[in-house]
Structure formats: structure tokens, C-alpha cells
């Protein structure tokens, strides 16, 4: 428990610090006076002046702020700074800067979180390697993601080369598909059970088609547990990292895909699971919880979930490849998370997704802390920080007053009104509405965390 708390404090502290540092450095760049740089919200517990700025650690740990001269207060979140007791130059006030300068200051926070993710991924790829499956065998092709030519791919085939480049693992398969510069991707395959070699050409004229081809091919992987999510049924049942799933309800399980299909179809149904651990067989009982998994059409499908992750191997990358793929992976994760969020919102508004399904995907600080501890134990803490940093950047850009996206919305309104900003009173009212929305989501997410922990 103590380890989990320490890891959670470290992760959230770094992400908040980097976010606020982005605002701070941008403010300094355009010569805005910064009165306070705070990690945490509310009343400062510890503070120290350095130059014209007070650096503080505040009482509420979930957040931070940069208080600038002439900036709006965020109702009740920032402790007051007595500006009349501090020498300030009106020319250096935030509100007196040009729109593009204020945009830069506001946008710099989310941008700093994105750049942190890029650096983390680049470091992971260079010092540790890229996660991959030690196989080039195709177990299945997702029918909803089929491209012309893919109907010729037979399940169980082994990919020998992609566009003439030999491949030894799934990372090399994905990399060579993604790096294809021609209008088509040519796969040389070897069929299973002596079927011989054959070639398939798939039109992939752009990045979207190449990504679709990558997503459509499902690799064959053993049902070997690489990670267990805290508070989930697998953890409660005693399944551990490194366990090999042998059988479910007496049915032999050959692959990860077979295992997930069985579990997905058995929501809230007790299952007898046989695992192999260090050469010994154990019989465990697991009851998958009812959850929601995203579909390619933007909807969610109810399915049984137990909270386990597959086992990966690590593939060494050169410095150049690590820098390149760290950046591209960050962009991919940003687009993926943004699309998932957009699908969730549009699904709710069109009633393709129920409120209950949307609520189930929410996680709060308790879940973040638990996952941080689990990912740290499995040696993947930096990957978790990168994903969380991208999430923080995207969420902060939502057009909700009190978030960075809300302040960008204020700037847009000012531009549309030909340089006339909303009054301080109007901005404050909108910020109060934003606070209600944000705190409501936080309460809902924390309630979800407690429900998962208590099994309600």
C-alpha cells in the first residue's frame, strides 16, 4: 500500500509539475510576470520566493497552477496573492498581452505534457526496447477492418516478409507496414500445415490504410499473463503475472485470442480457470465483471473482463529509430485517445452508448494510484506515465471553463467579438459552471473506483 501511494504521488507530481512548467516558461518567454508557481491547489503549505515569483507546495494535491499578474482567479482553487503588495507592471499583466501570446501561455501546459510523453517513449525505446510479440503468425484477421486483398490471408499463416523485408517478430511486421512508401503492402506468407508460400498485396495508399492493416492482423500469442490490473477479478482470484492459462471451465485454451473470446462471453458467470505457475498447476475461480469494450464503429460492446494484460518481449532499437518511433508512437496514442473520447461523446449524444457504459470507463485518482503501483511492479511505470501524460494533455484541452481548453475558448470568443473579451463577471460565472462539471466527473470517477474496490 505504501509503495503504491509513493508511486502515485511521484507520477502525479511529475505530470503536474511539467504541465505547470509549460505555462510558466511560456509566460516568461512573452514577459508576463509570474507571482506564484504552485504544485497543488488551495492554501500554500510551504513557499519560498526566488526573484519575483513565489514557489509553493499547496494543500490539495490534485492539480497545480501558475498565478500571473492580471490573470483571472479560478474560484476557490488558487490561494489569493495580494497583488497590491507586490510591485507589478501593467505592461506585464497577462490580460494586457496580445491574443497569440495568451494562447501560447495557455496551450503550453498541454504541449509540455505531450512533449514529456515523447521524451518518455523515446527513452523507453532506446534504453529498454520496443514491446513486441515473439511471433509473426497470424491467428485471425478482423473482419470489420478488411481492406481489398486481405481476404486472401489465411489464419495460421506465418508472415515471412513485408515489402521484401524479412521479419522475425510482430514489431518488425508493424514497423515495416507503417514505413511502407509504396501504394501497396506486399506480404509474403507461409501457410500452416504444409500449405506452402503465397503472396498477398494490400492497397495501402496512406497512413490511415496502413494503420488499418496493422490493426486488422491479430498475432498468435500464448495465453501468458504479463500484467494484472489492481482491483479487478483476476487480481482478487489470485492470478499472477507469469501465469499461463491452460483451461477455462475444462476447455483447453491455446491462445490469448481464444481465452479472451471465452471470457468476453461470460460476464458475471463464475469460471474455473486452470493456470500453470512455476511448473505447478493451480485451479482458480474467477468471475468476469461486466464491462464495455470499444468497437471499430465507435460503439461499446458489453463483455466479461477480468483485468489481465498479455506478455511482451522487448526488441532493441537504434538511437535514431528510438527518437523516431518515440515521436510517432506519441502521435498515434494522442490520436487514439482523442478518437476514443470523441466516439464516447458522439455515442452518448446519439444514444448508441448508454450512460452506464460511458460511466464504466471512468477512473479516478484511486484507480490511477493502483495502476501506477502495478505498472511500477511490472517494470512499465514510464509507459504508464507517458499514456497518462497524453491523457492529461487531451483532457486539459476540452472546452470546459476552468480547464486550459476553456480559457482557449475565452480567447476564441474575444477574437470573434473583434477584440472585446468577456467581462470578468461573465468569465467567473462560466468558470463556476466548469467547476461543477469537473468536480461532478471527479466524484463520479472516484465513486467508480470505490465500487470496483468494494465489488459493488
From TrEMBL:
Its main location: membrane. The chain crosses the membrane at residues 99-121, 381-402, 430-450. It holds the Pfam family PDZ_6. It is found in: Membrane. GO terms for biological process: proteolysis. Gene3D superfamilies: 2.30.42.10. InterPro entries: PDZ, PDZ_6, PDZ_sf, Pept_M50_Zn, Peptidase_M50. The keyword Metal-binding applies. Its cofactor is Zn(2+). GO terms for cellular component: membrane. The keyword Zinc applies. Its EC number is 3.4.24.-. Residues 224-255 form the PDZ domain. Belongs to the peptidase M50B family. NCBIfam families: RIP metalloprotease RseP. This is Zinc metalloprotease. It comes from Candidatus Glassbacteria bacterium RIFCSPLOWO2_12_FULL_58_11.
Amino acid at each position: 500500500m505504501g509503495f503504491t501511494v509513493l508511486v502515485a504521488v511521484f507520477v502525479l507530481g511529475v505530470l503536474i509539475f511539467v504541465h505547470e512548467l509549460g505555462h510558466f516558461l511560456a509566460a516568461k518567454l512573452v514577459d508576463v510576470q509570474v507571482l506564484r508557481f504552485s504544485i497543488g491547489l488551495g492554501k500554500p503549505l510551504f513557499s519560498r520566493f526566488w526573484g519575483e515569483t513565489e514557489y509553493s507546495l499547496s494543500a490539495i494535491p490534485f492539480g497545480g497552477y501558475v498565478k500571473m499578474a492580471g490573470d483571472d482567479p479560478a474560484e476557490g482553487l488558487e490561494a489569493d496573492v495580494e497583488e497590491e503588495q507586490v510591485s507589478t507592471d501593467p505592461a506585464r499583466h497577462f490580460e494586457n498581452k496580445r491574443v497569440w501570446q495568451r494562447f501560447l501561455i495557455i496551450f503550453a501546459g498541454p504541449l509540455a505534457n505531450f512533449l514529456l510523453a515523447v521524451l518518455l517513449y523515446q527513452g523507453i525505446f532506446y534504453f529498454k526496447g520496443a514491446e513486441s510479440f515473439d511471433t509473426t503468425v497470424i491467428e485471425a484477421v478482423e473482419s470489420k477492418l478488411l481492406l481489398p486483398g486481405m481476404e486472401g490471408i489465411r489464419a495460421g499463416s506465418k508472415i515471412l516478409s513485408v515489402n521484401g523485408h524479412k521479419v522475425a517478430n510482430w514489431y518488425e511486421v508493424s514497423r515495416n507496414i507503417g514505413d511502407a512508401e509504396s501504394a501497396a503492402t506486399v506480404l509474403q506468407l507461409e501457410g500452416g500445415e504444409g500449405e506452402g508460400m503465397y503472396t498477398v498485396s494490400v492497397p495501402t495508399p496512406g497512413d490511415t490504410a496502413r494503420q488499418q492493416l496493422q490493426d486488422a492482423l491479430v498475432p498468435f500469442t500464448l495465453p501468458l499473463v504479463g500484467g494484472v490490473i489492481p482491483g479487478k477479478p483476476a487480481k482478487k482470484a489470485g492470478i499472477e503475472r507469469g501465469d499461463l492459462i491452460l483451461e477455462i471451465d475444462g476447455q483447453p485454451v491455446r491462445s490469448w485470442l481464444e481465452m479472451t473470446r471465452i471470457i468476453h462471453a461470460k460476464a458475471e458467470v463464475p469460471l474455473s480457470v486452470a493456470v500453470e505457475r512455476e511448473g505447478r498447476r493451480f485451479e482458480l475461480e474467477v468471475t468476469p465483471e461486466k464491462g464495455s469494450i470499444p468497437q471499430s464503429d465507435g460503439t461499446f460492446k458489453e463483455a466479461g473482463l477480468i483485468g489481465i494484460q498479455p506478455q511482451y518481449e522487448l526488441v532493441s532499437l537504434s538511437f535514431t529509430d528510438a527518437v523516431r518511433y518515440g515521436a510517432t508512437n506519441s502521435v498515434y496514442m494522442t490520436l487514439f485517445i482523442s478518437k476514443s473520447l470523441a466516439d464516447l461523446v458522439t455515442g452518448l449524444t446519439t444514444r448508441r452508448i448508454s450512460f452506464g457504459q460511458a460511466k464504466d470507463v471512468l477512473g479516478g485518482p484511486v484507480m490511477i494510484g493502483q495502476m501506477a503501483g502495478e505498472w511500477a511492479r511490472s517494470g512499465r511505470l514510464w509507459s504508464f506515465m507517458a499514456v497518462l501524460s497524453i491523457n492529461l494533455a487531451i483532457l486539459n484541452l476540452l472546452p470546459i471553463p476552468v480547464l486550459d481548453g476553456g480559457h482557449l475558448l475565452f480567447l476564441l470568443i474575444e477574437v470573434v467579438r473583434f477584440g472585446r473579451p468577456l467581462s470578468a463577471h461573465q468569465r467567473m460565472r462560466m468558470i463556476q459552471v466548469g467547476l461543477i462539471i469537473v468536480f461532478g466527473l471527479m466524484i463520479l470517477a472516484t465513486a467508480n473506483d470505490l465500487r470496483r474496490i468494494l465489488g459493488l
